[in-house]
């Protein structure tokens, strides 16, 4: 904030500094995040710029408490979240309903750009009341009773068995229901029981999706209104010019001005086709980007599960040490930014490629076929030619060699065409998968030269080394050591997500200790046999004295 203030002061007091370069905040007069102000006089412009600097604190000051209310896991937090989400949602809807149009870019751009924010606020407005109602209906009747505790122990046991690679045997009452099986099949790629996707990964994908929407909206409002204006303002004089250049087919070969109604309708039809091609290419690009992001989530889950089991070579081509470092920490911090930037850039590349392809298909195939400018006999000739099958059965090997030598120049030309096709396929594949950081666009031997994939590898190192579920369970068991009387300790049956545990006030004595013992045995067996933990295990101490105890004084 101090640096921004100094930039404003430098701009106002020292105009010749830095050769008159404008300050950081010299942009057109724009409204503040919550409300809009009328254009102030010249003397109040510095104050308005300071207000804009303070407006940068709007999002962390208002939105961070809105998200933090869910982490408290208390009724008061849920109640505060309800109030904040409702207030934010009402203010945004009221503001956009009061002034839906804006003069910048497009009259409805401001309204359309705020749709993701309004949608997220509406989801939170429904989610927080649901959490509040569930807290009243479950906690008062003892939802964390013996049944839930036993279920938590079963989840921990299944978690340990899953890390070791053992098959999980689950029985669902709806297994025979075809609708339930269809839902399970549709959701099997995006989530499984006993596995929690990291929060930073979910936030990065969410920000990438919102960024894709904003970029697609900018591309849409920057092209479609302009092409509509051009189509509405098309005149006969411009049509005559296009006919004379040979861009528009016309019965009047010389392009003499006259009755050009048919040619004018053709020009408007071509512009409409161009508009449709642009919209279709943009929709295809957005759908492919969204599908690649969902596939990236599936790959994240598979890679994390493999690294949890210690199968490093199943994820990386070379063996890696899953230890945090300075570079890993920096990459972990910039992972969400890289994901958003790569996704937006991939969307732009896909839009250009698909727009060119759709325009070529429309104006070279669809429109000529519709106008009957392309002779049907050409298609019949191409079909008959492709249906002919050449069979080569040389009686001798020498004849095959001679024929290969004679066809060498022709094969060179065919190879050039195949090389061009290979370049096209490679470019299309890389453009589609550009937003996926979990795969490298380079060869396996040089994949670390890919900055996106290198950032993803370091991100996995931090996630696995700092949030391993077995490590969380082991740290919890370390906290369950016998304590002096009068001190409250956590109960070993308080389980959340199979590993992260919650505090309870009352524990029923009817809980079977066999399940606790079985869960602890699975955890201990996992700690002993997990390959990712073996390099980090210390060797046997040479001194037989127990670690942490003082040596007894020497006897006289």
From TrEMBL:
<keyword id="KW-1133">Transmembrane helix</keyword>
<keyword id="KW-1003">Cell membrane</keyword>
<dbReference type="GO" id="GO:0016918">
    <property type="term" value="F:retinal binding"/>
</dbReference>
<feature type="transmembrane region" description="Helical">
    <location>
        <begin position="106"/>
        <end position="128"/>
    </location>
</feature>
<feature type="transmembrane region" description="Helical">
    <location>
        <begin position="270"/>
        <end position="293"/>
    </location>
</feature>
<dbReference type="GO" id="GO:0034632">
    <property type="term" value="F:retinol transmembrane transporter activity"/>
</dbReference>
<dbReference type="GO" id="GO:0019841">
    <property type="term" value="F:retinol binding"/>
</dbReference>
<keyword id="KW-0813">Transport</keyword>
<protein>
    <recommendedName>
        <fullName>Receptor for retinol uptake STRA6</fullName>
    </recommendedName>
</protein>
<keyword id="KW-0472">Membrane</keyword>
<dbReference type="InterPro" id="IPR026612">
    <property type="entry name" value="STRA6-like"/>
</dbReference>
<keyword id="KW-0675">Receptor</keyword>
<dbReference type="GO" id="GO:0038023">
    <property type="term" value="F:signaling receptor activity"/>
</dbReference>
<dbReference type="GO" id="GO:0071939">
    <property type="term" value="P:vitamin A import into cell"/>
</dbReference>
<feature type="transmembrane region" description="Helical">
    <location>
        <begin position="342"/>
        <end position="367"/>
    </location>
</feature>
<feature type="transmembrane region" description="Helical">
    <location>
        <begin position="50"/>
        <end position="69"/>
    </location>
</feature>
<dbReference type="GO" id="GO:0005886">
    <property type="term" value="C:plasma membrane"/>
</dbReference>
<keyword id="KW-0845">Vitamin A</keyword>
<feature type="transmembrane region" description="Helical">
    <location>
        <begin position="399"/>
        <end position="421"/>
    </location>
</feature>
<keyword id="KW-0812">Transmembrane</keyword>
<feature type="transmembrane region" description="Helical">
    <location>
        <begin position="201"/>
        <end position="224"/>
    </location>
</feature>
<keyword id="KW-0683">Retinol-binding</keyword>
<dbReference type="Pfam" id="PF14752">
    <property type="entry name" value="RBP_receptor"/>
</dbReference>
């Amino acid at each position: 904030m101090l640096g921004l203030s100094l930039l404003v002061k430098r701009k106002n007091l020292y105009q010749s500094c830095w050769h008159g370069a404008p300050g950081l905040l010299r942009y057109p007069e724009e409204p503040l995040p919550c409300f809009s102000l009328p254009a102030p006089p010249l003397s109040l412009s510095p104050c308005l710029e300071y207000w804009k600097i303070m407006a940068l604190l709007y999002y962390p000051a208002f939105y961070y408490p809105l998200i933090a209310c869910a982490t408290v896991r208390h009724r008061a937090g849920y109640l505060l979240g309800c109030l904040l989400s409702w207030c934010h949602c009402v203010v945004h809807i009221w503001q956009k309903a009061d002034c839906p149009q804006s003069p910048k870019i497009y009259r409805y751009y401001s309204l359309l750009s705020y749709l993701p924010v309004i949608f997220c606020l509406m989801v939170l407005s429904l989610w927080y009341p649901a959490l509040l109602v569930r807290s009243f209906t479950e906690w008062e009747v003892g939802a964390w009773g013996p049944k839930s505790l036993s279920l938590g122990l079963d989840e921990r046991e299944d978690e340990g068995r899953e890390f070791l690679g053992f098959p999980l045997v689950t029985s669902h009452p709806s297994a025979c229901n075809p609708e339930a099986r269809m839902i399970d099949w549709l959701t099997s790629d995006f989530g499984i029981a006993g596995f929690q996707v990291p929060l930073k990964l979910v936030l990065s994908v969410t920000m990438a999706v919102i960024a894709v929407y904003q970029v697609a909206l900018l591309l849409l409002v920057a092209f479609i209104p302009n092409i509509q204006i051009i189509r509405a303002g098309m005149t006969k004089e411009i049509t005559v010019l296009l006919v004379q250049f040979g861009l528009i087919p016309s019965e009047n070969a010389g392009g003499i001005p006259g009755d050009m109604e048919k040619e004018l309708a053709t020009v408007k039809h071509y512009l409409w086709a161009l508009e449709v091609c642009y919209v279709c290419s943009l929709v295809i690009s957005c759908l492919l980007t969204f599908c690649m992001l969902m596939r990236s989530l599936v790959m994240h889950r598979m890679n994390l599960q493999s690294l949890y089991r210690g199968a490093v070579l199943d994820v990386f081509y070379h063996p890696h040490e899953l230890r945090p470092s300075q570079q890993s920490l920096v990459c972990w911090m910039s992972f969400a930014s890289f994901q958003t930037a790569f996704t937006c850039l991939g969307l732009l590349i896909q839009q250009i490629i698909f727009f060119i392809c759709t325009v070529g298909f429309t104006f070279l195939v669809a429109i000529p076929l519709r106008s009957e400018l392309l002779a049907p006999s050409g298609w019949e000739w191409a079909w008959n030619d492709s249906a002919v099958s050449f069979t080569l059965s040389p009686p001798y090997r020498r004849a095959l060699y001679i024929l290969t030598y004679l066809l060498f120049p022709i094969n060179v030309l065919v190879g050039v065409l195949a090389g061009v096709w290979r370049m096209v396929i490679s470019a299309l594949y890389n453009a589609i998968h550009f937003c996926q950081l979990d795969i490298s666009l380079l060869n396996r031997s040089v994949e670390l030269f890919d900055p996106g994939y290198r950032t993803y590898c370091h991100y996995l190192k931090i996630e696995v080394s700092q949030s391993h579920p077995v490590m969380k369970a082991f740290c919890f068991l370390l906290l369950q050591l016998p304590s002096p009387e009068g001190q409250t300790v956590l109960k070993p049956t308080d389980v959340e997500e199979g590993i992260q545990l919650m505090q309870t006030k009352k524990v029923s004595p009817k809980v079977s200790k066999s399940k606790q013992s079985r869960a602890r045995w699975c955890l201990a067996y996992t700690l002993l046999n997990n390959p990712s933990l073996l390099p980090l295990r210390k060797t046997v101490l040479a001194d037989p004295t127990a670690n942490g105890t003082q040596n007894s004084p020497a006897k006289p």
